[in-house]
Design brief:
Elements (H helix, E strand, L loop, with lengths): L1 H4 L2 H18 L1 H4 L34 H36 L3 H15 L2 H12 L3 H11 L2 H15 L2 H8 L4 H37 L10 H10 L12 H25 L28 E10 L6 E11 L4 E5 L6 H8 L7 E10 L2 E2 L5 H7 L4 E4 L3 H4 L6 H12 L5 H14 L16 H12 L6 E5 L7 H18 L2 E6 L2 H7 L2 E6 L2 E7 H6 L4 H8 L49 E3 L2 E3 L2 H7 L2
Parallel strand pairs: 3-8, 3-9, 6-7, 7-8
Antiparallel strand pairs: 1-2, 1-4, 4-5, 9-10, 10-12, 11-12
Helix pairs in contact: 2-4, 2-12, 4-5, 4-7, 4-8, 4-10, 4-12, 5-8, 6-7, 8-10, 9-10, 10-11, 10-12, 11-12, 16-17, 16-18, 17-18, 18-19
Length: about 625
């Protein structure tokens, strides 16, 4: 509800619908005349233009159009909401059963749904109402019974997705019944979508009722907006120039349909934010002045990079003023606990942030070009041809319905259009051989490979265009220890053979020690220490780095007691004042809770801690 009240489109729609409902409920109080009352008229009373007595004129029966419009809201809204409830109940039940039970029952229900989808709704609705009669009850039932097919399809697709979730399998393994699984785990996932769909079905039902009434198939005893349009067109309103008998009911229908459409769209946005934010939306560019370009020979130089994400509280800084460099032939490891901004830093530098994220300050210079300010066309030419990334979770990064070879060939042909398909597939096989997978597996699908092989295939995909810089985001996640070692050895071998510059994002200090030359330690979106791996690991200067190393087992000191860091990294909306690590630091003093330390030079590189200033006498 709080999210809906912050949604402008939803509030506008709710206000518009509220006006219509208020008019319908208070019709006897608002209408200046009773449109159902029998009156004696003369020819001069018909189609009177708007006046002080009749603000919207009169119709062909000398009835006040404004009063009919107010009373007509009752019938149109009753039909719309009642029919929508029937449609959603029927469609929801069929969709849930067909999605949860994929056997003969589910197939039968969907074939019935397909049969009704083939038949035009309006034609069948006209025939049905003409046969059963034109009463209000029959119209509601007819619209409701014929309007469930779209809901059934929608609910079935959501149910099919929800039933495969791991938490549903976990509940089933606990011994939960089908009804329990539906009630506790599947329906709560489907219900928000059904709620949003219900609002949209209301608008379709109102339009259907108006169409029937316009065609003369409405209840002749009742006044509705569609009935008013029908009478206006069939009884000479157009010929008489009586626009007031036609335009007001038409606008009333548009008003209500638009209001429920806005509400439904707002509910979809709130209940499923992915509908409005996606990776294909235009990428925001940095508007702040760029920092000066670096003078050194770094392949990638990040300067003062800050990344913010949209939130109801306003933009929240996830990464603040990060600096680092990656030189040709060297490997930089970015390490820290989950939620410290490691991946966000890399994705921000490469302009690959998820929806809602944006680089708000700083720059990322790749071979002298600022990636954060390049236009889309230049960025597309650069991506994968010179900068490639191995995404976290290879199963999610690979398309499940395409073969491994076709996906590698896709990258090759995207940057070398002259390469034919056969040559691209052959090159894909060579790349798979390079990473230790037989070339014949180019025809395999991702699900046919083990976790380690999928990770290798993802590395082969990243190498498809011979990049200068390879970014590996958590390359050993969810792999067993032996497979992790194989992947790390592979990366190390490829980096050495191809003279690659690499950035490895990880929370595992063992990965950094094994594969990296330099290390960047991050905490709560800030760099706390940086330097060469040998020096930082041998002589850590920041308390956070020391605690990370003390929490990591050592073969050289098997009897050393491992420690754990108390607490957890702060949430973006609750960043502490001063040093962000101070609430968890055993050495924090008053200044740490008031000021934010800057990076200073240390024997091992640079670190951000006031203790270093005390030690050096500054």
């Amino acid at each position: 509800m709080r999210a809906f009240l912050r949604h402008r489109m939803g509030l506008v729609g709710l206000s518009m619908l509220g006006v219509a409902v208020l008019v319908a409920v208070a019709a006897p109080l608002l209408a200046p005349y009773d449109p159902y009352q029998v009156v004696h008229i003369t020819v001069s009373d018909i189609y009177q233009p708007p006046s002080s007595l009749h603000l919207l004129g009169t119709d062909d029966g000398a009835k006040d159009v404004l009063s009919a419009l107010i009373y007509g809201a009752r019938i149109s809204l009753i039909v719309g909401f009642a029919s929508a409830v029937i449609s959603v109940l029927i469609g929801g039940a069929i969709g849930l059963i067909a999605g949860y039970r994929a056997g003969w029952l589910g197939q039968t229900l969907m074939r019935i749904t397909d049969f009704f989808l083939v038949i035009p709704d309006l034609a069948l609705l006209i025939v049905l109402v003409a046969i059963v009669g034109q009463s209000l009850r029959n119209i509601i039932l007819a619209i409701g019974l014929l309007g469930w097919t779209t809901t059934a399809r929608l609910v079935r697709s959501q149910t099919l997705t929800a039933r495969e979730r791991k938490y549903v399998q976990r509940a089933k393994a606990m011994g939960a019944s089908d009804w329990y699984l539906l009630r506790k785990h599947v329906i709560p996932q489907v219900l928000p979508l059904m709620l949003a769909n219900t609002i949209l079905v209301v608008s379709l039902a109102i339009l259907s009722e108006s169409t029937l009434a316009f065609l003369g198939l409405g209840d002749p005893r009742l006044i509705s907006w569609g009935q008013m349009l029908n009478l206006g067109f069939t009884r000479g309103a157009v010929a008489a120039g009586a626009w007031w008998a036609i335009i007001p009911p038409g606008l009333a229908i548009v008003w209500v349909v638009l209001s429920v459409t806005l509400i439904g769209t707002a509910l979809e946005d709130i209940l499923n934010p992915k509908l409005t934010r996606h990776h294909l939306e235009p990428e925001p560019k940095v508007t702040s002045p760029p920092p000066p370009a670096p003078d050194g020979d770094a392949l990638l130089a990040v300067r003062g990079l800050s990344v913010a994400f949209d939130s109801p509280q306003g933009p929240l800084l996830a990464v603040k003023e990060v600096d680092f460099e990656v030189h040709r032939g060297r490997v930089l490891g970015i390490v820290g606990e989950s939620g410290c901004g490691k991946t966000t830093t890399v994705l921000g530098a490469l302009r690959l942030l998820p929806p809602g994220g944006a680089v708000v300050e700083g720059a990322a210079f790749f071979d002298g070009q600022d990636l954060t300010r390049l236009d889309d066309q230049a960025l597309r030419r650069l991506r994968w041809a010179r900068v490639a990334i191995v995404f976290q979770g290879a199963m999610n990064a690979l398309n499940p319905v395409r073969t491994i070879g076709s996906q590698i060939a896709e990258a090759i042909r995207a940057h070398s259009p002259d390469t034919d398909k056969v040559a691209a597939i052959q090159r894909a096989g060579e790349l798979l051989e390079l990473v230790g997978i037989p070339a014949r597996r180019v025809k395999s699908y991702p699900h046919e490979l083990s976790g380690g092989m999928r990770q290798r295939a993802m590395i082969a995909l990243a190498l498809a265009c011979g990049p200068d810089l390879l970014v590996a985001d958590e390359p050993t996640t969810a792999l067993d220890v032996m497979t992790q070692a194989q992947i790390l050895n592979l990366l190390e071998d490829l980096q050495r053979r191809l003279s690659l510059a690499m950035v490895v994002v990880t929370h595992d200090l063992g990965v950094v020690n094994h594969a990296c030359d330099d290390v960047l330690v991050m905490y709560a979106g800030r760099v706390v220490e940086t330097g060469s791996v040998d020096r930082v690991f041998r002589s850590p200067q920041h308390p956070y780095t020391r605690l990370l190393l003390e929490a990591f087992p050592s073969l050289e000191e098997p009897e050393r007691e491992l420690v754990s860091i108390p607490g957890a990294p702060p949430r973006l909306a609750e960043m502490p004042r001063g040093c962000r690590f101070a609430p968890r630091c055993p050495y924090a003093f008053d200044r740490c809770h008031e000021e934010e330390p800057a990076l200073v030079s240390t024997p091992s590189g640079r670190a951000a801690c006031f203790l270093l200033e005390v030690d050096t006498g500054e």
